[in-house]
């Protein structure tokens, strides 16, 4: 058998199992993203509140979920959920835990970006007759988005790698699929290396997409790079 | 008193039974971080220098190293070197390195060192690159060699810039060290998991959470004090 034989597709190899794990990893990360962003956005708005109780709660949230090890957050959700709402699946536990963490980190990025857009922008929009909501959506949000993108890209890359931790609560994503294959074939080095390379590929693809999004978000903004 | 404890969900009997195990786990966590972070810093310096002013080959090697360790999950690196190394135990024995991979604790310390070296190297490279070019040029005008310029001019200024991100990296290492529990190291996380499977008391996880949060908060405060001290006047 060739050295890559264990990676064959179908019944003779583990290629299709690994691919299924990879696909589950991608789905978990993509499903976590909107939930985490929504939490991050909400917490960023809370931190901007003039009510001390509300901004304090926002700060507390960030301190807790940035400070806890991601692995512990996953356990807290997985073993804590049955006491509150009943048993949940590994996918749901992973999604909730990763979204809580993503929300904590991205709230800091979004808060910085919101503060980075000059107040004059909102005032100008209101002077032109935009309602508060419309000014936020059409004038503020696109600029917040541009400023937040590099930080959010970082948050995404960290979360993508953290999906591997969900393997400990019995979700057969890429890490666990590789683990199962490594044990069954007794070829741990090959399968863990393949897992590493696939994560690396996901990171690289993400970076390309992020660079494209950044170029798009920066349309019409002169930068040092292009005169 | 008992009613108060019950109200806040604190069980003194449970505490008496498992506190020693958790404390010993905490000691393992602290040892892991105390070994890996300084070693990673020491390893990060040459890697940062290779990125900062190395030739094409050393630069490419440094890019490959940092790219791999920053682009893949720590858990995958841990599995690769702990379980993967077993395939090469003959070769590792012949070069006298098998002890490093055989034991879960030393293997975790090794992987954490390599991982944090990659992150710290990027921090140091960025900090060195952020020192204005005029500083280096002034050193050259004074007739200093490259090593002297690095050591006397660039490095002290870069360290000030690197202080904050290095503190963040230390916090990330404390959190990441919990991943060692997956390869059977009984750190704070591992001790908590064991105690949980013995008692099925969810509050054990909450204690662990409080301990981790306290550790992170201590580092944050120490680092704020360091920053005030080293602030450029």
TrEMBL record, chain A:
Subcellular localization: Cell inner membrane; Cell membrane
Domain ABC transmembrane type-1, residue spans: 22-210
Keyword Transport: yes
GO cellular component entries: ATP-binding cassette (ABC) transporter complex
TM helices/strands, residue ranges: 20-46, 58-79, 91-113, 189-213
Species assigned in the record: Hansschlegelia quercus
Membrane topology according to the record: Multi-pass membrane protein
Family: Belongs to the binding-protein-dependent transport system permease family. HisMQ subfamily.
Transmembrane listed as a keyword: yes
Molecular function (Gene Ontology), one example: transmembrane transporter activity
Protein name: ABC transporter permease
Keywords: Cell inner membrane, Cell membrane, Membrane, Transmembrane, Transmembrane helix, Transport
Primary site of residence: membrane
From TrEMBL, chain B:
Residue ranges of the TM segments: 26-49, 61-85, 97-118, 170-192, 204-223
Keywords noted in UniProt: Amino-acid transport, Cell membrane, Membrane, Transmembrane, Transmembrane helix, Transport
UniProt cross-references to SUPFAM superfamilies, sorted A to Z: MetI-like (SSF161098)
Domain ABC transmembrane type-1: 26-223
Signal peptide as annotated in the record: none
CDD domains, A to Z: TM_PBP2
Topology in the lipid bilayer: Multi-pass membrane protein
Entry's Gene Ontology BP terms: amino acid transport
Localisation: Cell inner membrane; Cell membrane
Any one Gene Ontology cellular component term annotated for this protein: ATP-binding cassette (ABC) transporter complex
A GO molecular function held by the record: transmembrane transporter activity
Protein family according to the UniProt entry: Belongs to the binding-protein-dependent transport system permease family. HisMQ subfamily.
Name of the featured protein: ABC transporter permease subunit
Species in which this protein is naturally found: Hansschlegelia quercus
